[in-house]
Design goal:
The complex is a heterodimer of chains A (about 200) and B (about 260). Chain A has helices spanning about 10-35, 55-80, 85-90, 95-105, 120-145, 150-155, 160-185, 190-195. Chain A is mostly helical and about 200 residues long. Chain A has one domain (about 1-195): Transmembrane di-heme cytochromes, Chain C (Fumarate Reductase Cytochrome B subunit). Chain A is globular and about 50 Å long. By secondary structure, chain B is an alpha+beta fold. Chain B has two domains: about 10-70, no CATH class; about 85-250, Alpha-Beta Complex (Sulfite Oxidase, Chain A, domain 2), CATH 3.90.420.10. In chain B, the strands form two sheets. A five-stranded mixed beta sheet of chain B has the order 2-1-10-5-6. In chain B, a hairpin with a 5-residue loop joins β3 and β4 (about 150-160). Chain B is globular and about 50 Å long. The chains are: A mainly alpha (about 200), B alpha+beta (about 260). The interface of A and B includes residues 22, 29, 35, 38 and 50 of A.
Chain lengths: ~200, ~260
């Protein structure tokens, strides 16, 4: 029996994926609450979609979930590198390959036959979101400790600019979320694989 | 008045699991019974009346843990970046939980700054006494808990020099500041002893105006703005944590930059 089911996503990855999904949701919704206390742009997030009730509550959620996000994220990077999963699944990637797969996706010819193999668009998005995930944590740390971690904050151009980059990372994560969920709904087998492994 | 930490749209199940790990058995039982079934209800209805106390309890515990972590990260020798005069934000924003019209107006003549607690030199200081103290000026970034920041120039005496002068027991844990309008804040001793922590009497080289905290502001570039009390009337050196205006409502107590 076991021989016939090929594991697409090992259990460590599935646990980390859903832990990240939960932590990221809390981070984004509480982040909107914090943003609303002093908006950078001329809009606010509706109170009905923010977490924490008021600024103090949003901050408590944000500074609690950040530990889950950071520890889980660090483990994910270590596992992905050490097991060779990143290399296997996300490489090689090339501009022409991405373009080709975008074209076949738009014309309805992109194959989802083997979920274990990521197409070039997936590779680009997954690599991209890993980079954004690292950036959102580093800019977050820069804002949390602009004095103690001032060398890090300086990399982003200081506190105010780190805050701006932090916001754009959130925007990228929200955009990724929309695409990611839409595609998972279009190919339900992929959702199953992320839950039960195959 | 205590504000509620309402939690719409939280995943009840996940919250229960995470929370349970952090709690004692007795609290856990209470939490699970009040939260278990209702967590799902919370998800379905978006109702925010359930789980509040339990979630708040867990979040406050994590916030205490964050205090300890930040105290470990804090390095007394790490100086906040300083800026040239040209970088000063003008006009520097007034910020408080009340409007400027409601800010305290303090008469400098009868004003006394009370120093008490674990000090050998308990005393009431007149403004003239305070203004006669040696003064340094520094231009640093004020970071507000709300997210905005502004660069300002403050002049006054480093608090660590003042603490030495009044014979404070620097092994004590906190300096507790009280303000004319009832505001208060507790500053941990390592931060109070940071070289850039000032008893400030001037902003932009002028005696503090009412908006900026006349007659005294404790300026701490290694803390968020709400831990920089204005209209300061007393300092108590103490081993007891006495909280503060915002700290008591849920802002993280250490709130170090």
């Amino acid at each position: 029996m076991r021989d016939h089911t090929i594991t697409i996503h090992p259990v460590w990855l599935r646990i980390m994926h859903w832990t990240n999904a939960a932590a990221m949701t809390v981070m984004v919704l509480s982040g909107w609450q914090i943003y609303d206390a002093s908006p950078i742009f001329p809009f606010r997030f509706s109170h009905s979609i923010t977490l924490g009730g008021w600024l103090g509550g949003g901050l408590l959620w944000h500074f609690a979930a950040m530990w889950v996000l950071m520890i889980n994220g660090a483990l994910y990077l270590i596992f992905g590198l050490v097991t060779g999963r990143f290399r296997q699944k996300l490489l090689p990637i090339s501009p022409s390959g991405v373009l080709q797969d975008v074209t076949s996706a738009l014309t309805g010819h992109l194959s989802h036959e083997d979920l274990a193999i990521y197409n070039q668009v997936q590779r680009l998005l997954y690599l991209g979101i890993i980079v954004v995930g690292i950036l959102v944590v580093l800019t977050g740390l820069s804002m949390w400790k602009p004095v103690q971690f001032q060398a890090l904050a300086a990399v982003f151009g200081g506190y105010d600019r780190a805050r701006l980059v932090h916001f754009f990372c959130m925007t990228a994560i929200a955009a990724f979320f929309v695409i990611h969920v839409a595609l998972a709904i279009l190919v339900p087998r992929s959702l199953r694989a992320m839950v039960i492994g195959h | 008045m205590k504000r509620r930490l309402i939690i719409p749209h939280v995943d009840g199940q996940m919250l229960v699991k995470d929370a349970a790990k952090l709690m004692t058995t007795a609290t856990r039982r209470r939490f699970l019974t009040s939260g278990g079934g209702l967590g799902a209800l919370l998800l379905l209805t978006g109702c925010d009346v359930v789980n509040e106390d339990a979630a708040e309890d867990v979040l406050r515990k994590i916030s205490k843990l964050n205090d300890a972590i930040q105290a470990r990260i804090f390095d007394q020798n790490q100086l906040a970046p300083t800026y040239p005069e040209s970088a000063i934000t003008r006009p520097f924003p007034f910020n408080a939980y009340y409007d400027l019209d409601d800010a305290p107006t303090i008469d400098g003549e009868p004003y006394r700054f009370e120093v008490s607690g674990l000090v050998t030199g308990k005393k009431l200081w007149t403004l003239a006494d305070l203004h006669a103290l040696p003064e340094t000026t520094q231009i640093t970034r004020h970071v507000c808990v709300e997210g905005w920041s502004a660069v300002g120039s403050w002049s006054g005496m480093p608090l660590r020099d003042f603490l030495k002068m009044v014979g404070a027991d620097i092994r004590a844990r906190y300096c507790y500041f009280r303000c004319a309008e009832g505001y208060a804040s507790s500053i941990d001793m390592p931060t109070a002893l940071h070289p850039q922590t000032l008893m400030a009497f001037k902003f932009d080289r002028q005696i503090l105006t009412r908006a900026y905290g006349f007659p005294m502001k404790i300026r701490i570039p290694t803390k968020l703005g709400f831990k920089n009390p204005k209209y300061v009337v007393s300092m108590e050196v103490t081993d007891d944590y006495k909280g503060g205006y915002w700290e008591d409502q849920g802002y993280n107590s250490f709130s170090g930059n």
